[in-house]
Amino acid sequence: MLLELATVLLLQTSLVKADEGTKAEFVTVSTDIGTITGFKKATYNEFQGIPFAQPPTGSLRFKPPQPIQQYQDFQATASGSSCVQLGKFGEDAGKPVGVEDCLFLNVYVPVSELTSPKAVMFWIHGGGFENGAAHHYHPTSFMKEDVIVVTVNYRLGVFGFASFGNDLVSGNMGLRDQIEGLRWVQKHITHFGGDPSRVTIFGESAGGMSVSALHISPLAKGLFSGAIAQSGTMLMLREVAEVSKNWRTTQAVADDFKCNTEYGEEMLKCLQEVPAIEMLMGTQAVNDLNSKKFERSRFFPTSDYFSSDPVLPYDSLTALSLGEFNHVPLITGTIKNDGALFIGLAPMFGTVENYVKKAAAGHFFIASSTNKSEITASEQLEADIIHQFYTGRSTNMSTEQEGWNDMFTDVFFQTPDQKLAELASKHVDVYNYVFTHKSENTLCQIFGLPDKSLAPIHADELLFMFSDLMELFPGGMKFNEQDEKAAEAILKYWTQFAKHGTPSPPGQNMPTWSKFGTQKNYLDLSAEPEMKSNLNPSRHLFLQRIIYEPRESGIDRGTLAGSISDSIVDAIKNNF
Fold first, then answer.
1. pTM above 0.85, yes or no
2. Which residues are catalytic?
3. Is residue 266 assigned to a domain?
4. Residues spanned by the domain of 2
5. What pLDDT was estimated at residue 7?
């Protein structure tokens, strides 16, 4: 280890001659499979677009990622392409962007005295499992806290989550990409001065759900030492995989493209030959309530219990209830008005009446099947009861925002988050938070809200973590003193957790962040952080009774063995 540290120090001071026109300076790191050259910045080194797996193209489309074999003096000086997706912002909005050859990661290394290996933070981007890319997030603010940050791409949409319901295409390839990225970190991060025994995974929205999925995945065991799930957990998805059988959506896609629909090699080969852009455009989510495509499941992570090597052998509620997950410390939390983004997006469903009558049960993820045509009358009644409890059956989101915001916030974010904290805290240290800092810097208008009255909303905390996101705003963001303090609080707590396994180690100068525990403690995270307890108890008790208690009552090992082979059940039990 000391020899590796000395090598890193030497490489950090050994510069490759740069182009005189750009005045760029370079730094080279030697790994077991070749050298990697990146940019040397004033306070950190940046390595962009490093392939961590072979291109998932051709016969590797829909297949597990294959590790990279050799670099041969790789120039990590340009961000790798994003994965195939529809653009969301600016000139790319609504246009196909990205390519299939997209399994890249970026490494950011602070330049500082290297007396011991540095803690590593592994960022997983959000975007609904349909959008986003690693290079959109520049963790320059984290560099002053002396941690290494890795940001990773993973396959999205149909490319990342198509399934045949069998081992030929078992699904969850986007999660397998993240796991392969973590394996790369375990193999190579020492060459960058990182400590593979201190790797914290963190992510927001779909990235938070990914963190939650890795937290319960036996395939991710030993690959990370801590987890931070921001505004996203797998408890948001409440389908029963055996009922939902979402591989039928892949079958429908095969039928759309005139392929064989028998879930075999012929179907696979045909789908692998469809041009990527055609595949992307032919599998976009449909919000027309009268369209047959609206009935289909979306391409999301789901239990692959049928696989001989499953990423998610159980649904998340089962795994957490049984304590069968990776026992590492966990930070989990939400934004005060996380759900307000759906107020801005609601017009895509037409009238509010149509939304409540036809879409709510599926949109709330309270149905056992994600195929909308299979939602039962009982499940639709549950959605109606939830709508009545929060809004009094309001049909006007714009004039009665508070009830709608509370409903969306609780159903999608806060109640699943509180349930995760409750179940996980029986086995590991859990630190819970709600981000409440209200700022002029908000994504309200980007999410279609006419003013900033509902700030902070979903993803607002990212503006205080990744300052380069100011590009979303004409003229950039303007931080006042309170904004700076809120940003400092997030960075300090997150990086202390990565370094020490707790956000409040002895000697730190921030308010102590207490564990969730039986008191249901949470940190009111703002410019002036403050500990509180028992968040919105009546609202969460209501949803606990409606959504979770009926499902929890049936969880036991005996019911699992019927759908999963005894050998896999025993292997999972031994893993955890």
1. yes
2. 205
3. no
4. 1-225+280-314
5. 39
